[in-house]
Amino acid sequence: MDRTKILVVDDNPTIRKGLSVRLRANGYEVLFAEDAISATAALVTERPDLVILDLGLPCGDGFVVMERLHKNDSLANIPVIVLTGRELADNRDRALQAGAAAFFQKPVEDVNLLFAIRKALDNSRGELRFDE
Amino acid sequence: MTEPTRRKSELTAYLSHELRNALACIQQFGNILVDGLAGELSGEQREYIGIMLENASKIRSVLDSALDGVPDPLEKCTNKIERASGLET
After folding, report:
1. ipTM for this model
2. pTM across the whole model
């Protein structure tokens, strides 16, 4: 059986590495993208089961990635968990309205992120709203 | 939006992004070590990383208060200092 594939989109390589260690330890296959363009390409070519998405990205931002994802019928059901260093004001509500399954500000507690991942995967439409 | 307000907003966004990312790295790798994902730790090593994580958590609380609109407890302190100064003069 294929392992659940998670696409981590973040321009910070240390954040990517830390998430990779934690997610792999929990049985997930992890892919990376470091900007909005490569994230969009990875969505199409890799078809991940879930996306962990930073908002502040080169070549666009996380909202651009979500917009592209939701415009593509074959990708629209992939749940997105936003994990960002941006401030709460505006960004949380905007991200949830844009279709994010969950919104976390960095730093996130591992247990909360892993819980949100499991819940979002259980709900392929990403209708869950979970805030730390 | 006035120029000072705009600049303050930009500074807040910059600080939030930079400090939260740095703090996330400290917390991520601290927890990775504590959870033994990079090998077993001695009791002393575990204790020291615990201290590091505890203080990272305190920094996070300060960030949440200072950058995300939670009432700033320092405002009260400032008022107290002003009143005390007033009594002295």
Report:
1. 0.81
2. 0.82
